[in-house]
Amino acid sequence: MKILITGGAGFIGTRLCKALVDRGHSLTVLDNLSAQIHGVAAVIPLPLWDRVAFVQGDVRNRHDWLRALEGQEVIVHLAAETGTGQSMYEIERYVDVNVRGTAIMLDLLANTPHSVRRLVVASSRAVYGEGRYECAACGPVYPQARTAPDMQAGDFSIKCPQCNAVAEVMPTDELSRVHPTSVYGITKHNQEQIVLTVGRSLGLEAVAFRYQNVYGPGQSLANPYTGILSIFSTRIKNGNEIVLFEDGTESRDFVFIDDVVDATILGVEHPAAPGHVFNVGSGVPTDVATVADTLVRAYGVSVPIRVSGNFRLGDIRHNFADLSRVQSVLGFRPRVDFATGIAAFARWVDGQAVQADGYERSIEELKTKGLYK
Length: 373
Prior knowledge:
This protein is of the alpha/beta class.
C-alpha cells in the first residue's frame, strides 16, 4: 500500500517506516523536523530516507498536506506536540498542532479528491487522567486530579471520589472514563474523536491507538519535556543528580518501541482494526524509583538519586493498560519486558553523544507558570 506517516522522522515514525518498507509498502513522510525533538541542526535521518519519500512540512499548512496526500491509501497520523507539563502553558501551540493540524487533514479528506481509505491516529494514555481505581467500599472508581494542598502535605495517594478512602490502581481499559488532567491529554482525546467521527461519516476506516509510555533506542535525548528514561539518562551522562518527584513510587506503563510498531502495523493491515480504540502498552506498572536505579546501574555512573517531594500539577499518580481488547481483536501481545527493553535502551544510549541537559530549564519554566510545587 501507499502509506503516509506524519511525524515519520520522529521516534516511533522512523521505526515504523523501516518496518513497513521491509513489508513491501511504499512510504511518504510528512515532518517539520521540530528543533525541540531533533535539535536545532535537524537533518533527515539516514539511511532510511533513500527508501522513503520525504516532505518537509507542517501539519498546520494545507499546502504541505496536499503535497503529502497525493496518491496515498493509508495515513498514520503520529505528528503531535507531546509533553503533559509543557502543554499546560504552551496551550495555543499544543491545540494548534494537535487539534487544528488534524482538522485540516480531515477537512481536505472531506472536500478534495483523494485515494485514502484508512486512518490510524496516535492517541495517548493521557486521555484517561488517573484512570481506573478500586475502592474497598465503593468498588471501581475514577478519581479526580489530586489537590495541591494534599500533595504539599506529602499525601500523594489517590482517594475515592465518593468516600475519600485511599483507592488502589487497576488496569485501565478502553471503556474507562475519559477525563484527562492536561491540555496534552485533552488534545489527544479530541484527535481520536474527530478522526473516528469524521472517518465514519466519510466511509473511511479509522483506528485510534492509546499508547502508554513508549521508550527504546532512537528516542530523543535532547528533549527535556517528555520521556522519563531519556531525561534520566541525560542527567546521568552529565553527572547530575536524578530528582524524583513526589515519593518516587509513582508508576507508569513502559512499552518498548518494537511492540508499539507491531501494534501500529496491525492497525494499518488488520481487517478487524477499523472502528476501534486500542490501548497499547506492556500491561505492567513500573515505578520511577526502579527506573532511576536500573539506569544508574546500567550506565555504571554514580549519581545521587533524590526523592524531592516536589510535584507537577496535572501529573497522574499511576496508570497501566488493560490489553484485553487489542489482544482479542488484533492478536497483539507485547514481546519485550521492561528488563530486556531498558537494557537495550541503555546500550543504545552508551553509543550516543552526550546531550546538553535541559532539565533544569524545563523545571524553571514550570515554576514560573506555577505548575511545579
